[in-house]
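hi support,

uploading two proteins for the ticket. first:
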Amino acid sequence: MTGPPFDATPLLHLATRRRIARLLAMNPVTTQEILLLRLVRRAARTRFGMAHGFGRIGSVAEFQARVPLRRYEQFWEEWWREPYPVLRNITWPGRLPYFALSSGTTSGRTKYIPVTREMVRANRGAAVDALGWYLHANPRSRVFGGLSFMLGGSTALERLAPGVRQGDLSGIAAVEVPGFLAAWSFPPRRLALLADWDRKLAALAEAAPAGRIRVLTGTPSWLLVLLERLAARHGHPPLPALELLVHGGVAWAPYRDRLLPYLPAGCATREVYPASEGFVAIADRGEGEGLRLNLDRGCFFEFVPLAELEAPNPRRHWAASIETGIEYAVVVSSCAGLWAYVLGDTVRFLDRSPPRLLVTGRTSYSLSAFGEHLTGEEIDAALLEAAASQRIAVAEYTVGPAFHGTRGLHRWLLEPAGALPDDATRLTPRLVAALDAALTRRNDDYAAHRQAGQLGAPEMVLLRQGSFAAWMREQGKLGGQHKVPRVIADPDRFAAAEAVLEALNRAAG
């Protein structure tokens, strides 16, 4: 594969310089309110808009009074399931052209997320903003002097009805990208279409023009696998011209120290927060400084304190009323016809103007089977601390509730990076003790339940390398946007997953 016809970085500079200036001057409250009212006006004559009195909404408060919070399951049953796959003037005007297949990480079920062409354009604009912020901080960059490598799922889309297709979100984006950008993109269509993930990774590692790739984008867990294969083929660093690694989809911390050795000196990393439902936020500063909320890219955002999410009338904050340091559930209304939709993610704000956040987990990525109220952020941090104390690198893990008699406990299934340690039998109790102590320090409810004896000491099983990949493959969820569920809160689902994983682990031995 030849390189691009010319270095397009100067053109990208021109395209983003004015945009970044506008973002820096943007008023978050005004921008979000104007966007919401514009969305409401567009959808006023849809079935959803007429049922909720969109024609009489003139403020954020009126919208919140008329439109209750809904989760995906409620939207599907009440509005989408019966007319699927042809949704015409249901929750957004016109015929819906696409459905993005979400992995259903926490529920175990595939979700069919509506995607409009307006949302595709909004997502594309947000991606350009991410590059714009990088160029703003690195004006001498030549990031478009080579190829951009997007590691995504298959770009093949299934035709459901005339004018209606579904598939991976990256496939939808590929269909809508202007053809001239193909000269700056990798992989080519014949490789991007591959659905078999193992075959696709092997083909990408073989075909990648390693010396011409300047940008690499994907989910950290799969980027690591790709870079390992590229390193085996090309040596270190496997992508010597790489200038920027863009990551999102799962927490960065568990993969950071394992990914960085594969990056050439000077390569920057930037986090983004995309979802099938919309592009939420992007890094405008360095690592750990939070992600800037996308205020004018097709989504109006609300934030419900996580502790109130199940309450009959939870407080619904937005750009005008958010506070720093509080765990919020993200709620989105969008140009894809989602209205007060509970996204399933949790965030915590570092700044209010502009709103800058950290992604802390999932609303269902929490563990409170016995009243311990562990958040995803606490679970990740405690495990990483405990693993580091025992000099273990975590590759993948999942945790869920189990019972010994009438007493509950947490069962952890952990796959270390590389081969199992020789002293795994002696190591596991030390690792469990360190994990128990780390959780006790971080969470008062966990500490109280452990002290009172209501919650037993955690248990852990160390799995051989590749066990989780084999499990995801067996479910047909290997690669792309699919992610290992960190928490399986339902005891029966967790027990079933544990049985399969332990069987795969024994087979690997």
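and the second one:
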Amino acid sequence: MKTILVTGGTVFVSRYIAEYYIAGGYDVYVLNRNSRPQPEGAKLIQADRHDLGDRLRPFHFDVVVDTAYTSRDIVLLLDAMGSCGEYVFISSSAVYPEYCPQPLREETGTGMNKYWGKYGTDKIAAEETLMERKPDAYILRPPYLYGPMNNVYREAFVFDCALMDRPFYIPQKGGMKLQFFYIRDLCRFIDVILQKKPEQHTFNVGNKDTVSVREWVEICYDIVGKQVKFVNVPDSAGQKNYFSFYNYEYYLDVSRQYGLLGETKALGEGLEEAFEWYRCNSDKVGKKPYMDYIDRNLAQASEGGD
């Protein structure tokens, strides 16, 4: 039985990863402060990752899956651990500047992205520190992750609008493209890395096809069993007040991932699973006041939809 350490383990990405490997027969440890419910079957190492002391020293982990945010996170964890085998870091596509030619490839230079700001530059620093300290580590750069356990108010916002029979206020005409990656496919790709140990150590991960905002909303409404009525909002400058995404379209080249993993789950099927989870777990999503903003600032000014 392999031993795996998952940093965090209580919210969306890290929790799903922990539960995935518990189901797969791994001996799973999670590292967190024990401020939230733990994954069933996980072994808790209760500590703040910025104050680990000798808590990790007695352990050897065959695999570490880390969702670190900063270079300091990486340094403190590596300094505190006794030893580990494979190290997989969940980074982000936010490391790519918004002005780079697309599709964005693994060789594309990293740098400040004006939409993601410090989050992106902190991930860059974390990547660089990790590769200096552990050159055989693997770095994964996903676009928007979705699926069961997603606590970010993205697909859940659209589901709520559909459940309430609300029209959907869409930036401009909804042509902006989005790229997603199903959370289970992220885990499947980690499996592939652990099995095949590819020579490449940094991968873009995601669905090979993008989807327009309009198409994405239509899929979500259809899953709920409703037909969407759109209201176009012509000025996209303030769209984060009423919509889940920045006015920023980008596209990752994920051909190397597909060369190892093969096909990924269809977006509609993944969103169905996300909705089934959300129906019973809506309290676990950090909801934002998009509807309040719409009702106060957009509904009165709108003149019908399309």
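thanks. also noticed: The chain has nine helices and 13 strands.
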